[in-house]
Every structure is written in structure tokens, then in C-alpha cells.
Amino acid sequence: MKLYSTNNKDLRVSFKDAVFNSLPADKGLYMPEHIPALPAEFIANLADYSLQEVAFTVANTLIGDDIPSADLHAIIDDAINFDAPVVPLGDAIAVLELFHGPSLAFKDFGARFMSRVMAYFSAKEDKPLDVLVATSGDTGGAVALGFLGVEGTRVTILYPKGKVSPIQELQLTTNGQNIRALQVDGTFDDCQALVKEAFNDGELNQLLRLTSANSINIARLIPQTFYYFHAYAQLLRRGIKEVVFSVPSGNFGNIGAGLLAYKMGLPVKQFIAATNVNDTVPRFLKNGKYEPKPSVQTYSNAMDVGNPSNWVRIMDLFDQDVSSLKAVVSSYTYTDEDTLKGIGELYKKYRYIACPHTAIAYLAAKAYKETHVGNFEAVFLSTAHACKFPDIFPQELASKIEIPEQVKELEGRESKVGSLKASFEDFKNYLKENN
Ligand SMILES: *Cc1c(COP(=O)(O)O)cnc(C)c1O
Question: How far is the CA of 225 from the centre of ligand 1 (A)?
């Protein structure tokens, strides 16, 4: 597999280089030089394959010789060790549950696959790989649990003190082993600035083999295609052939992976980008002007993104042709008030409790259904378990949220966290003294 930069199509780097750099120096994003089509026979027979088998075929088709088959099998069987079931609710609406991994969010797919790919490419190095990550909650948990115990790697997570939910904090601070958590007296932006400065620091780069677990890393995008194929396989088993996916979107990595799957041959009728009031993409699809805005805080805070970083990838997939993009991608926007109504309606109609991000995808799926006739299933993606966002539910619903095993297990563990002022000097000293 060779990749170019969306800012320079003459550039070519290997998969390994794209994984360790995350971003090309020209600030574009890495994209495969060509998108391979899957054999029509594979698509037609998807119902016969398990999630791991689907994942292997898709990854192998994309990555090619850069990881030999036997090694890729091992990486996938280790990384993708939890299911992604499609749960039919009724009214030709179903939910694709992506929260059965260790951090209870879909980011587990990307983080677990990326960690093992990085460890695979690091096998001959003598220094450990130092992963630095700033998080406002969900990314950090997925990265921490994704890298936990992965040999030859060490993860340092910075999060804003007092600004993550109790379960998110447990996921960050109870790991031990190769995972270190630091709470920063400041905001998420402060955490991000510290990490950025570390990557630019000559002395730290001499001392440590630094890398980011950036959400735009190509090794996080690839595994997010797997569950679209797997969802379609499950629909085929129920005799359903037409599907619309509604994707709760922030940085547009998740829906970007869906569109990559589509370009590889997955027959999807329509993708729906469901956003909160951070609506840069829905506005663009309406008026053709891409005008990023500063992000606004909402209940669905993992989607509070004013300038979605994966959007350039999606435009690249469609060769900048907005009309062919609009033929496949619709979008809907919802407020916090709508979100609460969506949560209430899902429970009332289907006895289903969804997280705020998921509720937005449900509302968009329903809106699309109401305005389009046809014999299709509308599948909305559930990106996180409701228990990660306890504060936004009314009491009577909050008490009904089941606490998954993953959380019960964390509650019994000892929590360990370092504290830091939002000062680069302090962060640098910490990294040097704890090497
Ligand atoms: C990260 C995240 C999203 C947004 O996904 P993108 O790939 O950034 O569009 C949605 N929901 C949850 C729960 C998330 O953690």
C-alpha cells in the first residue's frame, strides 16, 4: 500500500511511514493512492463470513504486502476481539452497536488495531514507542485500553482536570503497566498544546521515540470500515439488501470509513451525517460553502468539532465533486433539546437507552425514513455506551442504564494519576525524569 497526501498527490509514502507520522509535513492527510475494489463474490457472500474474516479480507485488500497475511491475521484476531451486533428495533430501523469493546466506544476499533500495527512495525527497535495523547475523554480511554499491555509501547495521556466523566477517568487512571495518566490544571486545548510542543522539541525527540495516536491516523481509519461490512452481512442474513447508515459525526472519521467501504464496493443506498449544532458539514452540503466555526459545547461532546479534520479525506474520495458526494451523503443537525427528546423517544418506543451521540443518529435515521420511500433498513450507529454520559439522563432513565462488566471491573481497581500545571517545562521534566 502506498499513500499520498491530500495536499500533494505526487508524494508517495509506505503504510509504515504513514502510521508513524500520522500527518504529512504539508498538513494534508494520507490517502491510499488507489482504492481497491473487493471481489463482487466476496460482497455477495458476506453473510457467510465472521467479523474477523471480513476484517482480514478488507484490511488485506487495502494494505497488501506491507503486512504479510499470517501477521495481519494475528493482528486482527487480537485487536478485533469483540462483536458489533446490529439490533433490529422495529419499523425497519436498527442500531449497530459499536460499544462492546474495552472502552465502551467505537474508537476501540481504531485504537486497538493501530496499537498492534505500531507494535508490529516497532518489533526491531530498542527504544520503546512513546505515544503521547491529549484527550477530552473518549479518545484517551480507547487509546489507553487499546495499548494496554502492548509490548514495546508506552502511553502518556493528558486530560483536563475535572472535565471528564467518572467512568472516563477510571478508564484513564486505573491501567498501570505501560499506561500513565496526567491530569492537567487547564483545558483540553492546553493538553493538546503541551503534546504538540513535545513533538516539536528537539531534545525530547533525541531522547524518546515519540508518536501520536492521532484520530486522523490511517491505521485508525482502516479498521472502522470493518463494521460497515459486518453490519451489511448481518442484514443479508435477515434477507435485507438495501441499507442506509446514519452516523453521529464530529471529526468525520467514522463516516469517512463508511464511505471508504462504499468506494471498495459495499452497496449502501445512502449515508447520513448526523451532527449536533456544530454543523459545518451540513451547512456546506446545503450552500456549498465550507465555513468552519469555533466549536460549541453540547451534550454530545465527542462531536463538538467546528472544523472536522477528516472532511478533506471525504472530498478526496469523491475527487472534490460535490454533486456526486451529495448523491450519497445527506445530513441532519440537532440541538441538545432534540437530543433529549430523541433519548426519550427511543426509550418510549423501543425500550432502548442510547447515549446522546447515538440519539442524534437515531433522529437523523428517522427523519430520512420519513421523507424517503422504499424497502430499506435504516441503521444508526451507536458510538458509545450510555453509561459514559450519566449526567444528561433524567433520573428515571439513568437508574435503568446497565453497568457493563468492563466498568464493574475498573471500579475495583486502584486509580493512579499524576498532576501537572499547564506548563511545557513541567511536562518536559516529567517525561525526562520518568523515562
Ligand atoms: C469520537 C466520537 C464520535 C465522533 O466520531 P468522528 O469519527 O469524530 O466523526 C461520535 N460519538 C462518540 C461517542 C465518539 O466518541
Answer: 14
